[in-house]
Amino acid sequence: MRPLSQDDIAPTPWPVTTGMNILVVGVGGQGVLMISKALALMAQRRGFAVKQSEVHGMAKRGGIVFSHVRFAEQVWSPTITRGEADMLVALEWAEALRWLDHLRPGRGVFIADTRQIVPPFACRSRKRGAPSGYARETPAEIVGRHADGCALDATGIATALGDSRAANTVLLGRLSAWLDYPVAEWHDVIAAIVPKGTREINRKAFDAGRGWTPPAPDADPDLVAAVPDALPDRHVGVAIEAAWCKGCGICVKLCPERCLAMDGPKAIVATPSACTGCRVCEWLCPDFAVTVRNEGVPA
Amino acid sequence: MLDVAPATPFDPKDYLRLQYMPHFMCPGCGHGIALRALLAAVHDCGIAKDDLAVVCGIGCSGRVGGYIDANTFHTTHGRPLAFATGLKLARPDLTVVVVTGDGDCLAIGGNHLIHAARRNLDLTCLMLNNEVYGMTGGQASPTTAATRLTSTTQSGAIEPTFDACALAAAAGAGFVGREVTRQAPALKTLIARALRHKGFSFVEVMSDCTEVYGRKNDLGEAPEMILSQKADMRPEQHNDAPNQPFRPNALPTGVFVERDLPEYGARLRAHAAMIRGDTAR
Question: Do B223 and A254 count as a contact with CB atoms less than 8 A apart?
Fold first, then answer.
């Protein structure tokens, strides 16, 4: 895993004349539409044709909300297809991951708030402190590896400035670093669309986002990966494909030999030598994550 | 269609569209277990992927077909049996499997179920019964057991439930069976028998909705739910106590009906040939 460095997030502004596809995503009530409105107004003032389309109204928090903003000399289709977005602005971390594939491979810019809003369906257990099914990918795994851009705690920055609701403007400020338009024009556009009483906080939030620099990477990140024990060469064995495991715990509870255990959100093979190859876990895994090797008992 | 299982071991990855895996279903959802059992049964019957058509309706169960690397068909709500009827009549060489849910099959598509069973066309209908409309937020379905909490029965369901197997049998299905996902190998055998049966085969799979139904009713997490299935079922005893309540504590499983009835496709083709012969004369 490559630690985040200054080079990763140094913006190379697009020239003023280039059209762009910008995808803004989040959950309801975060200001996805405010960002896209600001972008659309800005592009309009620069003389571009603009098309914007959205899904909105999921104000209950948890519903997906997205907005496509396309501007160029001429725009025909109002939507951005997979792999066509030049920029992805995400106001919520899991939404950032959900839409990652819409980014143009290789040169799309990824800007995300790292704040998590855990949807109710991700909570497997109602016990306090129980692990949730929320996306496990960390910003360090995404930024610089799958996409270039930056992940910042925009909500935290906005809260420090006095109003967490300005997180969207922080991200807009960050986005503006990639667009070669004067700051004064951005301030103008924001003042034109936000409610009068919030102009000051939005201006401050915009500047904070635009001037954001990544914190220095940890000197010695704890990245030592656990090396799994090699399976002994036996005629029976069990393996779990971690990428498919959703951690429901069925295999762990139903294994008669207690070979398996939960390791955080996933099941692992704890005592491979105890496996008798009975295939109970394989049959009952709803996610096809368990494979049992046993020449004696056909699958 | 093979009568005995092929020698090659079953690997579900051969039958899945790997690009869509892991599938969208919640952790512990019984539909994944039913999908595996279906694929294993297809393998047992030696049906080539090109000769298999899976028709699905709408709902969590409707998404099951999309993960199968065969000819799949995602249709309108409640109407997979109607689509499958057309498909099977046009392509009698295909093995047509309908994967549907309790709401899809008994509420929205209840009419299609009884008429498909009545006609006895050679289809295999797999009804994944999780007793709730999971995808749309946990509303009560025609199989939601009494006293169960759902988002539309906030103080407990009061309606009597459908016994889908009895319904299909009464409507004239040639093969009717039920199994719980806990007994996945038995479920596979049951589905394989249904696939081999010539005529309308109806298999009800008792599946667990862990995230919506289980949570709302405090049925425990996925392992507890699947373990409790065993306490709920009474294999092959459905004839002993016909007045037992359907659920929660007396769930008959096994094959209820297996009878040779005239198959609709063959009858229709014979009829068509007869008419054509008449006109030629």
Answer: yes
Peptide bond into B235 cis (omega under 30): no
What's the number of domains chain B is made of? 1
**Cα of A246 to nearest chain B Cα, Å:** 5
Mean pLDDT of B222-248: 60
Interface subset of A 207-246, CB within 8 angstroms of B: 243-244, 246
Helix, strand or coil for residue A262? Answer: strand
- Domain assignment present for residue B7? The answer is no
Nearest beta carbon to residue B223 from set A125, A250, A299: A250
Chain A residue with minimum CA distance to B138? A121
Residue B259's nearest CA partner among B172, B166, B171 is B172
Distances (CA, A) of A9 to A15, A218, B186: 18, 17, 56
List of chain A residues whose C-beta atoms are within 8 Å of the C-beta of residue B36: 283, 285-286, 288
CA distance B13 to A213: 45
Q: How many CA atoms within 13 Å lie on the side-chain side of B1?
A: 15
Start-end of CATH 3.40.920.10 domains in chain A? 6-210
> Is the residue at B4 inside a domain?
no
CA distance A207 to A201: 10
pLDDT digits (tens, 9 = 90+) for A140-186: 888 877 777 888 899 999 999 989 899 999 999 999 888 888 899 99
User: pLDDT for B203-221, tens place per residue?
Assistant: 999 999 999 999 999 888 9
Domain that holds residue B116: 12-280
**Rounded distance, CA B269 to CA B199, Å?**
15
Return d(Cα B61, Cα B42) in angstroms, integer.
Answer: 18
The residue of chain A with its CA nearest to that of B182 is A284
Does B232 map to a domain? yes
| B contacts of A247 (beta carbons < 8 Å) | 27
Classify domain A6-210 by CATH architecture.
3-Layer(aba) Sandwich (3.40)
The string of pLDDT tens digits covering residues A44-70 is 988 899 999 888 765 545 567 889 999
For B187, the closest chain A residue by CA position comes to: A283
Q: How close B87 comes to chain A (CA, Å)?
A: 29
Asked if A286 and B12 come within 8 Å (Cβ–Cβ), the reply is: no
Q: Which fold has domain A236-294?
A: Alpha-Beta Plaits (3.30.70)
